[in-house]
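Comment on this:
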Amino acid sequence: MKKVFYNVTVVIEHASHDEWLKWMTEVHVPDVMKTGMFLESKICRLLGSDETDGKTYSFQYIASNMETFQKYQEQFSPALQKDHTDRYEGKYVAFRSLMEINDEF
């Protein structure tokens, strides 16, 4: 089975940035990892982007397979996303992408 790469890109407004990043690194990402559904995670800051509306980050997670990711989506994602939305509604824009990792190269 192929590993799955789950990416969440977030643009956070400048006024909320510092508190949001602290919460993401100390609470949210650890909570995602505590689900046991991902093998690893990374937090990346997007460079060279237009920061007029805020700073852009990429939160990257690797699941061992699609079934594990789907279990995360069904059992854990709704509550974790709600927690984020309740805290920062109207202060960010996010989009998610899902990719299959090709280890053959």
